[in-house]
Amino acid sequence: MKKKLGLLLVAAGLLSGTVSLAQEKLTIGTNPAYPPFEYKGENNELLGFDIDLMNEVCNVLQKECVYSEQEFDALIPNLRLRRYDAVISGMDITEERAKQLAFSEPYYLNYSIYVSTADKADSIKNVEEMKIGVLSGSTHQQYIRDTYKDAKVSVYPQYPSAMSDLALGRVDVVFGDGEVVRDYIKENDKLVVVGEKVTDPKYFGQGLGIGVGLRNKALVEEINGALKTIKENGKYDEIYKKWFDQ
């Protein structure tokens, strides 16, 4: 009897350990198509500013980051279905999104720009009259819809598709995150910025945030605490310089 009881206790201990290990994982939804924030490396590994930052958050929280790759416009619906614990994917904090998920404190102050081909840039006087490419489900799509109600808009699941159509002349400009779009310009001397930076606070002025389920306030507080630690210990500056001060 004692032997059976001992075996049961050992089994219970092993099961408890398994549950404990499972709780130490933090599942993260992301769309790795936005260098330098998140993208796939040569060996199919996840790279980018967001990835390094999230990994450091997990390090502070003593949890393992496990990433789930999704299309951008599927991130929030799948978070609400609890298919992962949080999302990080260059996501602007907006009032509309805040109705669907809880955000961490901003970890990056964002801006947006228009990009076109060099041979077409001089002829662009009014963006509203151009064919505009934007990311599906993005703040940029909403901004264009609200600001230029008569604009011809094409939506894309990822930036590479939009940039390809820009090169083929199917759209006149692509509107997107400043650092993401500039990364494409660095790689292609036929692309140029047109117009001014857009920093409308209603859409872009609150910065980028890590999204968590509305009811998971404890995780939001943990993430905010980790971000505070990272900024205080110098890790944030180290990661920022790696991706942006080049």
Provide a descriptive summary of the structure in words.
It is a single chain. With 246 residues, the chain is of the alpha/beta class. It folds into two domains: 23-108 and 206-243, Periplasmic binding protein-like II (D-Maltodextrin-Binding Protein, domain 2); 112-198, D-Maltodextrin-Binding Protein, domain 2, CATH 3.40.190. The chain has helices at 2-23, 49-61, 75-80, 118-121, 139-147, 159-168, 178-187, 217-232, 235-243, and strands at 25-30, 33-34, 38-40, 46-47, 64-69, 86-87, 102-103, 112-117, 131-135, 152-156, 173-177, 191-198, 211-212. It has a five-stranded mixed beta sheet. A five-stranded mixed beta sheet has the order 10-9-11-8-12, sandwiched between helices. It is globular and about 55 Å long. The termini are far apart. Mean pLDDT is 88; it is low at 1-23.
Question: What is the element layout, followed by pairings?
Answer:
Elements: H1 2-23, E1 25-30, E2 33-34, E3 38-40, E4 46-47, H2 49-61, E5 64-69, H3 75-80, E6 86-87, E7 102-103, E8 112-117, H4 118-121, E9 131-135, H5 139-147, E10 152-156, H6 159-168, E11 173-177, H7 178-187, E12 191-198, E13 211-212, H8 217-232, H9 235-243
Parallel strand pairs: 1-5, 1-6, 9-10, 9-11
Antiparallel strand pairs: 2-3, 3-4, 6-13, 7-13, 8-11, 8-12
Helix pairs in contact: 2-8, 2-9
InterPro entries: Iontro_rcpt_C, SBP_3_CS, Solute-binding_3/MltF_N
Main location: other
Domain Ionotropic glutamate receptor C-terminal: 25-246
The averaged pLDDT comes out at 88
Q: What is the makeup of the main sheet? A: 5 strands, mixed
Task: Output the number of helix runs.
Answer: 9
- Going by CATH, the architecture of the largest domain would be 3-Layer(aba) Sandwich
SSE-based structural type: alpha/beta
CATH superfamily of the largest domain: Periplasmic binding protein-like II
The CATH topology label of the largest domain is: D-Maltodextrin-Binding Protein, domain 2
Number of distinct beta strands: 13
Describe the strand arrangement of the main beta sheet, using strand numbers: 5-1-6-13-7
Helix content: 40-55%
Order of helices and strands: HEEEEHEHEEEHEHEHEHEEHH
Overall shape: it is globular
Distance between the termini: 69 Å
Question: Which stretches are poorly predicted, pLDDT < 50 over at least 5 residues?
Answer: 1-23
| CATH first level of the largest domain | Alpha Beta
Rg over CA atoms, rounded to whole Å, is: 21 Å
- Number of domains as seen in the coordinates: 2
Strand content: 15-25%
